[in-house]
Write a structure and sequence with these properties.
By secondary structure, the protein is an alpha+beta fold. Helix content is 22%, strand content 27%. Helix 1 packs parallel to helix 2. The radius of gyration is 17 Å and the shape is elongated.
Length: 165
Amino acid sequence: MGNNIEKAKAEGTIAATIGGMVFIYHGQWSGYANRLEIHLRRQVEEKEDESVKKYYQKLMKILKEPAFTSSNFHYIDDITGNLKDNFVEYIREAGENHYLIVVNYSSDEGCPHVPIYSVEPKDGRANFLEVIEGYKYTISEDAIKKYGLTVCLNHWETKIYKYNY
């Protein structure tokens, strides 16, 4: 991903949450730009990027949830809205454990509407928790049914939402 940390985090998030064995290369958690190749050589000295390290620590904690250890994966292909083709979105579920992963995999900002058919609103409201940053969102049942969840993301940005909790 070159020296683009946000692009690398987006790719790393997809690779870690899509399912299967998680592979992380040497230095990925630290935000190193110089990847240590298979050939025997000395590693280039680099300073760790604390924001990348904290991001991966949060991500690895989330991956212990049952939704990410199960084989239940649902790709969402009927999104609408601004720059929808630049986004990757899917759901990971296991029993009462539901997560929506949305990644803007482009250098443009966008705001697609993501339908989530497994949302179970309570008292006319659907609650979402963005688990990386810890933000809570409440959306009316009518808005979820009509538009889905509107997700506005900057370039190469990722959001992981827990819902029905």
